[in-house]
């Protein structure tokens, strides 16, 4: 039977106390790093994913490790509707979403997703930088509690099909897949087509199997989702100058310090600028690439389409008032 000296006992108590303190300290450090979930429906090959990963690294670095972020691409945490709901439930913290989907929760923010709302890219950029966008974003935040931080250029949306579309009459009765938000139906309905909502990750199969005859998306998306493999024509209607909004969910935003909110704003704004530049560059290069793949890239008379759609801008589908519309049209004039 061994007898430990008082000094020996004191040492072992001290060691135990030190380990406990270290353990508690370690647990505290683990607890302090909050892991955020950033969800989107785009492919890993697209700029949106690349800059989301960049943003995750930047946030971890600029917050000194207080926040880490996992990026979940390609609808892995759900369709566009699901991830929008997830923001308010707190099951996701950050998303990219189309203005048309955000417009379901707060109508005026959908204005940027209406067909032929913008004259060109410069008009879109002027809106992205405008007080009007800030006011609309604030309205959305007041309505939902979620916080729009940046507008990313998504590209000009064009119609792909298996028969040439040269003018509005060519779309009469055409069964065209659109995302499941009312704003996407404005142009097809104005020209007598049959817009059919189908989830993004099911579109390739729907085209391949002839469930729909056509779809519409920007050139970089057409390539990323390989829609050119199952469609012969890319008709350059440019009917929507489209955007993705980077939004942080209210439950998460309310936990952020003022300092961290500023970091999130800066990082996601920078990421949006990088997305925008990458998409512009890609749009410039892709016409030739699609032609090399054997697709026919078809120039159309956009004015004919614009004229068909303009009456709908302040019609029944409008989820904004006329003053907001007039202010948007005046930007950059």
Automatic annotation (TrEMBL):
One GO cellular component term: outer membrane-bounded periplasmic space
Compartment annotation: Cell envelope
Gene3D superfamilies registered for this protein in UniProt: Bacterial extracellular solute-binding protein, family 7
Signal peptide (residue range): 1-32
Pfam families attached to this UniProt entry: DctP
Protein keywords: Signal, Transport
GO process terms (BP): transmembrane transport
UniProt keyword annotation of Signal present: yes
InterPro entries assigned: DctP_fam, TRAP_DctP, TRAP_DctP_sf
Family recorded in the similarity comment: Belongs to the bacterial solute-binding protein 7 family.
Name of this chain's protein: ABC transporter substrate-binding protein
Species the sequence originates in: Halomonas campaniensis
């Amino acid at each position: 039977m061994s007898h430990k000296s008082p000094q020996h006992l004191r040492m072992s108590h001290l060691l135990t106390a030190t380990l406990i303190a270290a353990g508690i300290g370690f647990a505290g450090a683990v607890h302090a790093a909050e892991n955020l979930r950033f969800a989107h429906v785009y492919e890993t090959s697209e700029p949106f994913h690349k800059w989301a990963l960049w943003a995750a690294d930047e946030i971890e670095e600029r917050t000194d490790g207080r926040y880490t972020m996992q990026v979940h691409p390609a609808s892995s945490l759900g369709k566009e509707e699901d991830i929008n709901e997830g923001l308010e439930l707190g099951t996701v913290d950050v998303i990219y979403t189309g203005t048309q989907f955000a417009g379901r929760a707060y109508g005026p923010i959908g204005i940027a997703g209406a067909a032929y709302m913008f004259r060109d890219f410069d008009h879109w950029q002027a809106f992205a930088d405008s007080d009007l966008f800030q006011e609309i974003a604030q309205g959305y935040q007041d309505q939902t509690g979620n916080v729009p931080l940046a507008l990313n250029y998504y590209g000009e949306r064009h119609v792909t099909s298996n028969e040439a579309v040269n003018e509005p009459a060519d779309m009469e009765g055409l069964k065209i897949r659109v995302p499941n938000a009312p704003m996407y139906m404005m142009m097809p309905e104005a020209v007598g087509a049959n817009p059919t909502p189908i989830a993004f990750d099911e579109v390739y199969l729907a085209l391949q199997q002839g469930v729909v005859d056509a779809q519409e998306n920007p050139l970089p998306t057409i390539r990323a989702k390989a829609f050119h493999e199952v469609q012969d024509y890319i008709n350059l209607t440019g009917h929507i100058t489209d955007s993705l909004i980077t939004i942080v969910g209210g439950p998460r935003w309310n936990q952020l310090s003022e300092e961290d909110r500023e970091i999130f704003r800066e990082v996601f704004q920078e990421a949006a600028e990088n997305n925008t530049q990458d998409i512009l560059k890609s749009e410039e290069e892709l016409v030739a690439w699609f032609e090399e793949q054997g697709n026919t890239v078809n120039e159309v008379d956009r004015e004919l389409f614009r004229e068909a759609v303009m009456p709908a801008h302040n019609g029944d589908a409008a989820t904004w008032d006329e003053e907001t519309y007039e202010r948007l049209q005046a930007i950059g004039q």
